[in-house]
């Protein structure tokens, strides 16, 4: 095999630093996406052998607490919380995580030095999401347990470097010694194998899990993801905060504003409040913000999270056995 790790003789499990770090069966992590990753999705992925994450970015602190408690009731397997570090109620979110004794926290969109030490004082495993080798090194210096390197193909908020996953993973692998998780453009076992051959030890997958019944996103959004083809997503709002969107009327307004050299304030006014909720959670396909990755072009159906995990793992095993079977 091209990566460090051991596939069980019967193919039922895979052992490496990521599975050991989280206490999971497969090195498959479900991304903590806003308006999609509630307790139902997180618990379903964890029960299927991966690591489910609750997306705190679209939750008030009391809502986050409810999801943590319900997730704990729905699974006896490890699960975690994804915590963007740019939200105003961050102190309250952190307090909930500590009070509820969440075992794993993935942080993003901020400086890992700010909270890593405090989380680790409470015995929490900390992972930070980056888009460059430079920031991966800073994460290692900050004492995180692992890094997610997310390429330009990813949905949602993206790095300004625009480095694709194929280039990012080997660069980050060279820069750090701690465990590395690949993200961005991964939805299949083949994609998982490819990134692990490049140096990753696990994968974080978002867009594919959006298209599951357990995801809390609106059915209309899930159907739009399934219907998306090549070129139907684009990285927008680069001056404000880069985000990959499905093209719709709202995106066209953004594109026109950017073409007319809109200021950051003008773009912020256009974005307004709750635009992502309006699209992904409430189902407004016309005026909502529809965040999804480029890999949506190969997602062809909505299926249960457990079936998605099994499908990815089965394909990974197939490709990991020589000769390749296509």
Keywords:
single chain, 326 residues, alpha/beta, eight-stranded parallel β-sheet, three-stranded antiparallel β-sheet
Description:
This protein is 40% helix and 16% strand. The protein is α/β, with parallel strands linked by helices and 326 residues long. The protein folds into two domains: 6-216 and 299-320, Alpha-Beta Barrel (TIM Barrel), CATH 3.20.20.70; 219-296, no CATH class. The strands form three sheets. Strands 3-11-10-8-7-6-5-4 form an eight-stranded parallel sheet. A three-stranded antiparallel sheet has the order 9-13-12, with helices on one face. Strand 10, helix 8 and strand 11 form a beta-alpha-beta unit. The longest helix is centred in the last third of the chain and has 16 residues, at 305-320. It starts with 5 loop residues before the first strand and ends in a 6-residue tail after the last helix.
